[in-house]
Design a protein that fits this description.
Length: about 110
């Protein structure tokens, strides 16, 4: 269950990062309120995961999911550059997240 909480927290991080762009510097009310709610939900699920998972692992995986998801959304939705270097770096983050999961203790 802690890994599920962590995945949810990471996906919510992607959502609030997208929402942050939509706030237009916190000048738009509804996108701002939705973004704050997504932030709170993301931190809540991260805190649930931290009950069991090591802090360093959980935080790195949370930020990794957020970075990977946000970078991919940037490429596919916001038409940001899709360079080989960017894609290789995303793959390196993916490998790090998988490595941290595999290296975690078996009871988590």
């Amino acid at each position: 269950m802690p890994w599920l909480h962590l995945i949810i927290a990471g996906l919510l991080e992607v959502a609030w990062a997208i929402g942050l762009k939509q706030t237009d510097g916190w000048t738009r009310l509804w996108p701002s309120l939705i973004t704050v709610a997504l932030m709170i939900a993301s931190f809540f699920f991260l805190s649930l995961a931290l009950r069991t998972l090591p802090l360093g692992t959980a935080y790195a995986v949370w930020t990794g999911i957020g970075a990977i998801g946000t970078a991919l959304i940037g490429i596919f939705i916001f038409h940001e550059p899709r360079t080989t270097a960017r894609l290789i770096c995303i793959l390196l983050i993916v490998s790090g997240v998988i490595g941290l999961k595999l290296a975690s203790s078996p009871h988590t």
